[in-house]
C-alpha cells in the first residue's frame, strides 16, 4: 500500500489547497518500508492527480481540503483521508500499525466521512 | 435607563468581551505556543468551529488559511512587532467550503506593555466574491466566452432573445461560433428540454434537404420503404437550426418561406399538411441583405428570417478573447485526452496574437489541438505549433523580442493594413477600433507605412 501525505516541514499541511510537497510512503508488514518527498503544483489539482498516479499512490492524507479538489481526487478512485493534523512521520507510523486516525491527529471539524478508506 | 457610569471611563474586561461578541469580524488570540486563547462568536460562525473545540489548539489547525504555511501574517507580526492590515486570503471551513477573507493582525499587549501573543481579525468576503463572480459571468454564456465589447452586448440581450419565440438570424464568418450561439439561445429559453436539431443547408441538394427537414412518406421514392419523420417533426417543441441559409436554392427558399408563414409543411410524397411547433434559428456566413439585393435570396424570406439579427465578430476583431479561448480549449482537451497540459508560453501567445485567424475560433481550436498532439506534458511552446504559424515572417517565435505584447500589436496592425491595401480607415474598421486610435497606435509603435 502506498500513501502520500501533503506536508509542511515535518507537519501535515494544514490546508491541502495551498500545499506543494508530498511525502510518499510505502507500507508493508504494518511498517513504513520506504519513503521519499516530491513536489507538485498547488494551483493545479490535476497536476497532483498526475503525480499520485505516477507514484501509484492509493491513499492521500491531508489537512483541510475544499470540495472541488476532494471530489477530483475521489473521482480518480484514490482514497482520501482529510482534516488530519500533526507530525507527518508519527502519523504514518501510527496509521501503518492501526489503520486509523488517532484522536490527536484529528483537526477540529474532522468527521468520520473525512476518513474515506475501506 | 443605562447608568452613564457604566459606559464611561476605561473599558472593563467584561465590556471588551461583550464588544468582541457583538462584532461581525472573526477575532482570535494566540499565545507564544501558537495556541488559541480566545475565539469570538463571529470566528465560530465563519470557521464553523466551536470555541470549545478551538481553544487550546494550534491556530493553523483551526484557522486553516492558505497563508498558514508560507505567509502567515501573525508570524510576521510576532517576528517584526508590527501590525498587518487587510491581507487577502481564504480559509477552509468545517464544511469544506473555501471562504475568501481579509486578515489583519496585531500584537496582544497587556496594560503593562508586555506582549502576551497575537491577535488575528478576519472578515468574511463571500458576498463580495459572489458579486465579483456574477460580474465575471457576464463574459461567459453557456459555452461561449468573450471579453470583447461586441460580444458583451450580445450577452446582455441574449436572455431576452432566448425567452422570446422570434426567429433569429445569426451572421458571422465561418468558425465564429454561430451554432454555439444558436445552442445557447435554445438552452437558455423555454424550449430547452425539447430537441435542438441542426442542419447544414449549404451541404445538401434540394431534394435531400427537403426530405431531411420535412421527412417523407412510404413510397415517396424508390427506397422509401417506410415513413421517415424530418427534423421539423423530430424537433417538435424545440429548435431547428438552419446553418448556411444563404447557400440555399430559390426553390428551397419558397418551401421554407411557406413553413415560416403558415407553420405547416407537407412531407415528401404526402398529401396532408403537418403542423410545426419549432423555433427557427438561421445562420449564414454571407451578407443576406447583399444577396437579397443581388436577387439571390428572396426578400420575403429575408424579412421572415431577420426578425432578430445577431452579428458575431470575427476573431481578429476581438483578439482580447484569444487567451480566454486558449484556456478553454486547453481545459477541454486535457479532459478529453486525459493529459495535463498547463497552458501556453508567452512566445506562443505572442505568435497567436499576431495571427489573423481567417478560420476564426475553429482555427484557433485546431491549432491548440495540433499542439496537443506534439506536446506530451508541461507548457505548449513554439515547437508544438503548426508550421504556418512558426514560419511566418517576423513572428515573435523566430525573432528575439523584448516585449511580446508590443510585437503582437505591431504584427496585428501591419497585417490589417496589408489586408486593406494600406487604407488606414479600412484597417481601423477591420480591427474594430476608431481610426484616430489606429493613427495614435501607429505613431506610438513606430510602424512605418
UniProtKB/TrEMBL annotation, chain A:
Stretches assigned to the Dinitrogenase iron-molybdenum cofactor biosynthesis domain: 9-95
One Pfam family from the record: Nitro_FeMo-Co
SUPFAM superfamilies reported for this sequence: Nitrogenase accessory factor-like
Signal peptide span: none
Cited InterPro entries: Di-Nase_FeMo-co_biosynth, DiNase_FeMo-co_biosyn_sf
Gene3D superfamilies: Dinitrogenase iron-molybdenum cofactor biosynthesis domain
Record protein name field: Dinitrogenase iron-molybdenum cofactor biosynthesis domain-containing protein
